[in-house]
TrEMBL record:
InterPro entries: DNA_Adenine_Mtase, DNA_methylase_A-5, DNA_methylase_N6_adenine_CS, Restrct_endonuc_typeI_TRD, Restrct_endonuc_typeI_TRD_sf, SAM-dependent_MTases_sf, T1MK-like_N_sf. The keyword DNA-binding applies. Residues 451-616, 636-779 form the Type I restriction modification DNA specificity domain. Its EC number is 2.1.1.72. Keywords: Coiled coil, DNA-binding, Methyltransferase, Restriction system, S-adenosyl-L-methionine, Transferase. This is site-specific DNA-methyltransferase (adenine-specific). CDD domains: AdoMet_MTases (cd02440), RMtype1_S_Aco12261I-TRD2-CR2 (cd17262). Belongs to the N(4)/N(6)-methyltransferase family. Belongs to the type-I restriction system S methylase family. It catalyses: a 2'-deoxyadenosine in DNA + S-adenosyl-L-methionine = an N(6)-methyl-2'-deoxyadenosine in DNA + S-adenosyl-L-homocysteine + H(+).
Amino acid sequence: MLKFDVKRKINTLRDILVGKVPDPKAQVEQITIAMIYKFMDDIDLEGMEFGRLGTRAFFRDDFEKYAWANIMQSENSGQQRAVLYAEGIDKMAMNPHLPQLFRDVFRGAYVPYRDPDTLNMFLKEISEFSYDNSEDLGNAFEYLLSIMGSQGDAGQFRTPRHIIDMIVEIVDPKKNESVLDPACGSAGFLISSYKHILENNKDKNGKSTLTTDDRKHLSINFAGYDISPDMVRLSRVNMYLHKFTKPQISEYDTLTSEEKWNDSYDVILANPPFMTPKGGIIPHNRYRVQAKRAEVLFVDYIAEHLNPTGRAGIIVPEGIVFQSANAYKQLREYLVNDNLLYAVISLPAGVFNPYSGVKTSVLLFDKTLAKNREEILFVKMNNDGYDLGAQRREIKQNDIPDIINIVKAFINGEDVSYSPLVTLAKKEEIKKHDYILVGERYKVVTVVNSVWPMVELGEVCEVFNGSTPSRTEKVYWEKGNIPWFTIDDVRTQGRIITYTNQHITEQAVTETSVKILPANTVLLCCTASVGEFAISKIELTTNQQFNGLVIKTKNLLPEFLFYCASQFKSELFRLSGETAFKFVSIRYVKQIKIPLPPLSIQQEIVTEIESYQKIIDGARQVVDNYRLTIKVDPSWEIIKLGDICENLDSKRIPITSSERNQGEYPYYGASGIVDYVDGYIFDEDLLLLSEDGANLITRVTPIAFSITGKVWVNNHAHVLKFQEKDTQKYIEFYINQMDISNYVTGAAQPKLSQGNLTRISIPLPPLETQQQIVAQITEEMAIVEQNKRLIEIFEQKIEDKMKEVWGE
């Protein structure tokens, strides 16, 4: 877990360096080198205290003067410190007293500035780090990467220590087993495994039972790979700091190299990179699953490199467990049918904050266990002991101890179905659902074909009208501090209300009919937007469009009433009559009936629906926040759109709606298909671009879209033909992300004329780069569409659940 103090120190160091070392990557280099330098001195001093009779091991003879403690002596001036530190950095690669891994760290290192004041401040801040807290090295380095942005671009995120420790505790590496992390980063999994083995090899007095041979085998049995030389350097040092004098960490491209392909391990633990480079990865042909996605290949690699009785724990992005693309499905089929996977732990989105809010799961492999089980265990983690915001503050709720116990009990053959965190699914059932590894898919419905007593709302709720204080009375509105709720609050934050956009004063409450409604009031719209509903998590007032349903019995949960409100719309429409202005009075609202199961059943229903809602919310974040983005390289040639395509506008033929004969061929307009007609005028790959309409400015929908095959196009869309299909698609994506307002004329009716269309400036990369961009964006958009489909599926599940409650 990234500590606030570490974050503060790093930010201070960056502030010190920024004037002299503006490049973030160079800042990472300078801070990391300095921390390692300081840690070496800490190790040296520790060695002097324990067994070397006051003699340094690293900084001695001609190098003694470069020891950190000597550089930082108070009698040294800032200039003297600057000279000693710069000389030390320059010469450390030649220090014969250092282990080779430290000499490698300093090879080529140098201080790019000589300002003594800056360097003095920098060195004093570095002195605050200590070998006693060696995990700070990994935390600090990866926090720097997150600031640079390279971490997210590479799909690499700092794995929280408590999540690593949970996985290690479950997988349970033994002292005689070989352990690999094929994407080791700062070696967190390897170090946690080492600590786990130490802890599990003690006698009753707490003394280690590991022999000299055991420790020797540990140093040989632990291995890590990473493609980044910076991370290899960091992990080697981190391993050294944890008593691995010759760490087996290799700079190695796990996904494309075959050099280590024949190596296998008893235990593999990993949090592999999630992102794939543009154009995909080009792997060799020894993988079981043919894919170009990094996360698919890493899981395949791990499965292929386990020994016959091997075990693994892998953190994977959520797409692995449900995406429908062939490679993902083929991978899941392999994991299930070949008896590798025995459990999936669903982690909450936000576990990787502050680096990323990405949703992840943990796949657990055990070749022996999976072979003997017909079921796969799904465990849902709701809380990991920290809130899911950017600061990750510690909270009381923590499912990790329970999850460890659940998985261990499952491994031991015990019944774990009692836990609300658990879903068990037979492999045959998983096969029927395209091997989707989402536990909610296989949950047994708690309430089936049950009919509960029906009660009127008036029996279980007080129903209050909302009201609007006079707008002309400023004393009711100015500097108000009492939340006042309207339909706009639903539109801005959804149906769970935690704040309001407007406030009224206490005077408005005392002098008008406005009533303060308590938290957990269900808000039901009975005027105009009839059927809209929400639940307040705060005290508030509301306008006359809404009624407040305040529960007056202990036999009804507010959340259950809230979900019941989703079923009120048709009844409210019936009660409001066929008038233009819909209104339902309180008298009729009180007569609406709801089913009233026992409280325990209500809670089960609420828990199930909330689990679906969390999936919907996560998928909606993807859909709402995705923005098509093409990062332009300044070296790309700038061309005019008219120079790279043929304009076919002259072939367009508009047909009025009264003259159209219905048929099978799409009839296109400015924003897509308008109708279907019985003829066509184009039969080829084309790009259509809106010629007129407000959408040219508002951009609610894409203004450029590719079409193919037999179609008819009216005169509201420009028709462009390209020689290269990838260029067409690149232009489509680029125009949909760019601001074209400078090319649009007309205020009342915006228009993109053919002349202005041809003058649109386009940065055009080489064809190969176009293809890579098109492939990447196409894949991103496919993922967005999958998330839209996920929203539809789980909204339907909620709808089906509530219909079931009603006995439909």
